[in-house]
Amino acid sequence: MEILHPLILHVAVTFLLGLAVGISRYKAASSGQVKVSEIALRQPNWPLTVTKIGNAFHNQLETPILFYLLIVLLLVTKQEDPTYLALAWAYVAVRLVHLAIHLTINHVLYRFLIFASSMFILMIMWGKFVLAIM
Fold first, then answer.
1. Which structural domain range is residue 83 located in?
2. How does DSSP classify residue 38?
3. What's the CATH code of the domain at 8?
4. What is the count of structural domains for the chain?
5. pLDDT at 39
């Protein structure tokens, strides 16, 4: 069950980021930085900072679903081992670096390299799992 710890950390960070999105959007709308009619249909009219936080949040909901699914499958099939645990922590650490880049310098090349690293870790985990159940 230790494999759930990195998953729980990532979920907690995602919830906090979702809260930050809500707060930043509320502040932008209530202060008049953006008119509700200009964003009601998801138009890209939010201030840059709000857009950056929103994009970072959405990114934490994309490929991590494959990570969450794999962790559940590892538990159900009793495949959890120290290698998966190390890879899970590595995956979450890299996702947190990706988030930090997204929210700060937002350098696209750095962000892509970190994203690619997280995908590589996830592919290794999935490959190990597929080989183990075949």
1. 4-133
2. G
3. 1.20.120.550
4. 1
5. 80
